[in-house]
Write a structure and sequence with these properties.
Elements: E1 2-4, H1 11-31, E2 37-38, E3 45-46, E4 50-53, E5 57-63, H2 71-87, E6 93-97, H3 101-109, E7 113-117, E8 141-147, H4 156-166, E9 167-176, E10 179-180, E11 186-192, E12 195-200, H5 204-207, E13 212-217, H6 224-230, E14 237-242
Parallel strand pairs: 6-7, 6-8, 8-9, 10-12
Antiparallel strand pairs: 1-5, 2-3, 4-5, 9-14, 11-12, 13-14
Helix pairs in contact: 2-3
Length: about 250
């Protein structure tokens, strides 16, 4: 949900509006302990998620006060659990690139060894790996997770090749990217909001070769009531990249 703020207001003014809204919500939760929202990432529950200011407007009921998760993170928390249960393979080693702390507990629960990499950042992490030249051995991990990373890289094809190299046969990479259905990938003439491209459904096989690719919806299978409770939007596309079994080419 968004709320327009009168034109001419600065981002600082929007932040003030957010703080006011969030103080009111927190006060109401102390006297009205009804659980209208619950976060699947950290277990927090309350009346509403908190407001968040962007340049153009204030977004209401979006951010979890417990772990800082946004709508897509809460959708992914449910998706990761269901995905690894569905494929019937528990990763021995999973690496989370550009790690979101709110997803750490979920991802750690679906694998035997959870590791993180935050290249060029001050975020605490196990590694500072360059995705265009990953200093890990061939076929050394079973799963890779990265959200809004490939669309924010000028050399995404090199990165995809490196991810393919470090994954074991039948390994998988799960990536959230800026995505449009019914189009081909288009490069942005000027990097917008850190993005270099918008991926399209018509050429995902080419863009993410040599993987076998499917595009999954993170919220698929969740009831409308669950989506409302968790604050999950109906559409959060996830590019799922499967590495073929040894000796078997990509379909």
């Amino acid at each position: 949900m968004t709320a327009r703020v009168p034109a001419g207001r600065s981002i600082h003014a929007r932040q003030v509006v957010c703080r006011g809204q969030n103080l009111v919500i927190a006060a109401a939760e102390r006297v009205l302990p009804r659980q209208a929202r619950r976060c699947p990432c950290c277990g927090w529950s309350g009346l509403y998620f908190r407001s968040f200011a962007v340049v153009e407007y204030v977004r209401r009921d979006v951010i979890c006060p417990g772990c800082g998760s946004f709508e897509r993170h809460r959708a992914l928390a449910s998706f990761y659990r269901m995905f690894f249960m569905r494929i019937g393979r528990r990763p021995t080693r999973l690496i989370h690139f550009a790690p979101e702390p709110c997803l750490a507990a979920t991802l750690a629960s679906v694998c035997d060894r959870y590791e993180t990499s935050a290249y060029g950042e001050t975020t605490p992490a196990d590694y500072r790996l360059d995705l265009t030249s990953i200093s890990l051995a061939d076929q050394s991990c079973d799963a890779v997770v990265l959200n809004h990373v490939l669309d924010c890289m000028p050399d995404d094809r090199v990165a995809v090749g490196e991810i393919f190299r470090i994954l074991r046969p039948e390994g998988v990479a799960l990536a959230v990217v800026t995505f449009e259905s019914g189009t081909t990938t288009r490069e942005l003439p000027v990097a917008s909001n850190g993005r270099f491209r918008v991926y399209g459904s018509e050429d995902v096989d080419v863009r993410f070769a040599p993987f076998r690719v499917e595009v999954a919806e993170a919220a698929a299978g969740l009831s409308p009531e669950t989506r409302r409770l968790h604050g999950i939007p109906p559409t959060v596309p996830v590019v799922v990249m499967h590495k073929p079994a040894a000796g078997r080419p990509a379909a």
